[in-house]
């Protein structure tokens, strides 16, 4: 294994946006909307967790370059009666892109929501029958010429 050598590349503006969603019970989404989650506001916590995750991506993905991030924007919306969408946009001026940072931010944002609402998602057998994280992907990648 080896980290890719980017020494010969120029420092340029790079941006990537990733998105994903979590499927929850309709009742859980209503609890989130009405700020009735015992642990606190999952959307606020997910935004903070996502920013922190973007900043620490190289520490959890072994061959990912550490990058000086210049901006991280996390948008979280309740997309319908039983799902929440997390979208992360990350920028840097560096020699390599920020797709992994955007994907990591989105993933950790979604995981944070799950963690904060899991007590409402379990069925009588202690399973999570309707909870799913799905469709995490890069929707935009930009590199200045």
Estimated structural class = alpha+beta
Low-confidence stretches: none
Strand tally, please? 4
Assembly annotation: single chain
Radius of gyration computed on alpha carbons: 17 Å
Shape assignment: elongated
Beta-strand content: 25-35%
Number of contiguous helices: 4
Protein architecture, described:
- The protein has 145 residues and is an alpha+beta fold.
- The chain is built from four helices and four strands.
- Strands 2-3-1-4 form a four-stranded antiparallel beta sheet, with helices on one face.
- A hairpin with a 2-residue loop joins strand 2 (69-80) and strand 3 (83-94).
- The chain starts with 11 loop residues before the first strand and ends with a strand.
- 35% of the residues are buried.
Comma- or semicolon-separated keywords:
145 residues; 4 helices; alpha+beta; 4 strands; four-stranded antiparallel beta sheet
